[in-house]
């Protein structure tokens, strides 16, 4: 011991860290997040070119999110069984091919089908990117890698919002898909040559659970869209509602009797976990579900072009990104009930600010709504994954995080569907329609925020030792969330 103190040993040669795997993961993440937002502003141009009606345009946006929400948990299970690199590469190839199919689609039906394939491929990528980064990097390099990844994920949403309008204006809507194909090829080459494979775990894949959950998500979205198009008593609407109800019951039964359920039913007996699911669903629904409607209103009523509309909507993403990046470390200190519940209520208040449009029906009246909802979403984003993980036993942490992200994507899918239905129900009164849509989002967010705050409140009689301590919460805060503007 004295020798080691008196004469320091020669420094160990550190193995150089290769950042090529991180570049591969970040490029895939950027593409995935990009296509959650890039289509929104181009919808009027797509409709004019392909002749799609309002319902078809809703599906162009929503089918991607439905596929992502419905298959995210299942793809996670599949990657555990088959190997994450293998599933990620398959998803990346399918993503590139489906993006090409979107760019050459000759009809709205073909475009919707290609967007569905994009969503399926995106789910395979979404479920595997972060575990692959965690597998590749360790210690300080891992923390740095996650920080870079989070920055790229946040930037992807902002770039998509702006790029969609600019490309649609300058080159035509098809280029919002075709322009990214070189990036898809580059991401695939980097991934093949740099990413390491995780050892297959041999776990069972819950195929019945995957089918039931995906069917439930699709049927619920179809019911809302068809109800607005043909009426809530229409045969198609009633059939969709029936299928959704049966699929939900089937999912519950399958999970209760499965030996390897995607989501163990016992987790739903945990108040905090349920509270996180409520927040994840409602904050994404309220903050981002109305954006396609707002985009249509800005272009069809106020006369803004796609590029100008992109710039207006990008304000929300920029605020969201800045708040999430600058305040993330501090947001884990207060009680989750205050942070998550309060921020969700704040999003509701932001949506309610849309009443200013009635007094001055132009794009400036939307700025308070965009700033406040972006601020609230930026508070929720870095916190809810860590709270979801801390709410359940350690062995279920990954499942809890994936379930929270699935709830978020489902909230976006149903938000787009319901907001579109409300907006179209106002016919020619588009200004009244956009205000009513955002007021409904406000009501949902404020009510959900209060419910979530109650569920996330710690029981007084619970021992402090049963709760994650400050160090634990700080540790969890460094685990990144999935891309949020998706």
Automatic annotation (TrEMBL):
It holds the Pfam family MFS_1. Residues 458-486 are annotated as: Disordered. It is a multi-pass membrane protein. Keywords: Membrane, Transmembrane, Transmembrane helix. It is found in: Cell membrane. PROSITE patterns: MFS. It comes from the Bacteria. Gene3D superfamilies: MFS general substrate transporter like domains, Multidrug resistance protein D. Residues 462-486 have a biased composition (Polar residues). Residues 21-460 form the Major facilitator superfamily (MFS) profile domain. The chain crosses the membrane at residues 21-44, 56-75, 87-114, 120-139, 146-167, 173-195, 207-225, 231-254, 274-298, 304-326, 338-360, 366-389, 410-427, 433-456. InterPro entries: MFS, MFS_dom, MFS_trans_sf. This is Arabinose efflux permease, MFS family. It comes from Streptoalloteichus tenebrarius (strain ATCC 17920 / DSM 40477 / JCM 4838 / CBS 697.72 / NBRC 16177 / NCIMB 11028 / NRRL B-12390 / A12253. 1 / ISP 5477). The lineage of its organism: Bacteria, Bacillati, Actinomycetota, Actinomycetes, Pseudonocardiales.
């Amino acid at each position: 011991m004295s020798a080691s103190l008196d004469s320091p040993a020669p420094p160990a040669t550190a193995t150089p860290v290769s950042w090529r795997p991180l570049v591969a993961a970040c490029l895939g993440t950027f593409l995935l997040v990009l296509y959650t937002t890039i289509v929104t502003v181009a919808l009027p141009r797509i409709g004019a070119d392909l002749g799609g009606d309002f319902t078809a345009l809703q599906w162009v946006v929503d089918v991607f999110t439905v596929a992502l929400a419905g298959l995210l948990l299942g793809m996670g299970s599949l990657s555990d069984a088959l190997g994450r690199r293998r599933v990620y590469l398959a998803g990346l190839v399918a993503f590139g091919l489906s993006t090409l199919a979107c760019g050459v689609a000759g009809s709205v039906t073909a475009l919707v089908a290609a967007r569905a394939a994009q969503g399926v491929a995106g789910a395979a990528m979404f479920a595997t990117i972060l575990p692959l980064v965690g597998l590749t990097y360790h210690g300080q390099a891992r923390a740095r890698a996650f920080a870079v990844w989070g920055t790229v994920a946040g930037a992807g949403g902002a770039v998509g919002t702006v790029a969609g309008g600019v490309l649609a204006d300058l080159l035509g809507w098809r280029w919002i898909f075709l322009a990214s194909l070189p990036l898809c090829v580059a991401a695939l080459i980097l991934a093949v040559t740099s990413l390491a494979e995780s050892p297959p775990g041999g776990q069972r894949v819950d195929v019945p659970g995957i089918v039931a959950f995906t069917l439930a998500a699709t049927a619920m979205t179809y019911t809302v869209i068809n109800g607005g198009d043909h009426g809530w008593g229409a045969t198609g609407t009633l059939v969709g509602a029936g299928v959704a109800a049966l699929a939900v019951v089937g999912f519950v039964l399958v999970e209760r009797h499965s030996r390897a359920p995607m989501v163990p039913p016992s987790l739903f007996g945990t108040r905090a976990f349920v509270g996180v699911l409520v927040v994840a669903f409602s904050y994404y629904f309220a903050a981002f579900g109305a954006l396609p409607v707002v985009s249509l209103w800005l272009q069809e009523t106020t006369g803004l072009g796609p590029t100008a509309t992109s710039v207006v909507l990008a304000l929300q993403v920029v605020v969201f990104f800045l708040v999430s990046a600058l305040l993330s470390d501090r947001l884990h200190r207060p009680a989750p009930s205050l942070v998550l519940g309060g921020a969700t209520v704040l999003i509701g208040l932001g949506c309610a600010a849309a009443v200013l449009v009635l007094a001055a029906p132009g794009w400036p009246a939307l700025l308070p709504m965009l700033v406040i909802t972006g601020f609230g979403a930026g508070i929720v984003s870095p916190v809810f994954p860590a709270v979801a993980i801390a709410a359940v036993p350690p062995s279920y942490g990954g499942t809890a995080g994936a379930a929270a992200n699935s709830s978020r994507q489902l909230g976006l899918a149903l938000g787009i569907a319901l907001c579109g239905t409300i907006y179209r129900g106002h016919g020619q009164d588009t200004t009244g329609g956009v205000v009513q849509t955002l007021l409904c989002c406000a009501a949902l967010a404020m009510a959900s925020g209060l419910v979530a705050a109650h569920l996330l409140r710690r029981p007084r009689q619970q021992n402090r030792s049963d709760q994650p301590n400050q160090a634990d919460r700080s540790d969890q805060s460094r685990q990144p969330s999935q891309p949020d503007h998706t």
